[in-house]
Write a structure and sequence with these properties.
This protein is an alpha/beta fold. The chain has helices at residues 3-19, 25-41, 65-68, 75-87, 105-114, 150-162, and strands at residues 48-53, 56-62, 95-101, 118-123, 143-146. A hairpin with a 2-residue loop joins strand 1 and strand 2 (56-62). The radius of gyration is 15 Å and the shape is globular.
Length: 165
């Protein structure tokens, strides 16, 4: 693990212990960030996701597009599949998705069909985020919260791409 990532992980964990209440948006976004760090270590785009039902994580994932050579192996898709398998249902109306970066159009479509109650993301994605293409891709009843731990999520993405360009 690169030194900067190790340092950021330690800082993040210290902040979690000191300032983040259990079962808050920040708490679950920290778990999504842990998934994103796994992607970073695997040289995947560092996006992580967790799906929560009644304060319990029932699905988690991080990008695996390079590992699996599958363009659909996004963090959100992997977390959705895990949660749907856990509940035995393709719809997740009582669940919240926490994802470190705004979902792309493909993932937003899957989120729409899953009928998630809520989607929470960290960093906006100015190039490929779903809101750049349309405001109504997500299901009309899905609530959206943006910007949870946004700087930490964006920093991980910047660091990843800085080392590749």
């Amino acid at each position: 693990m690169p030194i900067i990532l190790r340092f950021l992980t330690k800082i993040s964990l210290m902040m979690t212990e000191q300032t983040i209440a259990p079962f808050s948006d920040q708490y679950f976004m920290q778990q999504a960030l842990q998934e994103a760090r796994l992607a970073y270590e695997a040289e995947e785009v560092p996006i992580g996701a967790v799906i929560v039902s009644r304060d319990t994580v029932i699905g988690r994932g991080h990008n695996l597009t390079e590992t699996l050579q599958d363009v659909t192996a996004h963090a959100e898709m992997i977390a959705l599949t895990a949660a749907q398998n856990y509940l035995g249902s393709k719809v997740l109306p009582d669940c919240t998705l926490y994802v470190t970066v705004e979902p792309c159009v493909m993932c937003a479509g899957a989120i729409r069909h899953s009928r998630l109650m809520r989607v929470v993301w960290g960093a906006d994605e100015p190039k490929t985020g779903n809101t750049r293409f349309a405001d109504d891709i997500l299901h009309p009843s899905t609530l959206v919260t943006r910007g949870v731990l946004a700087e930490e999520c964006a920093s991980l993405m910047r660091d990843f791409f800085r080392h590749r360009r």
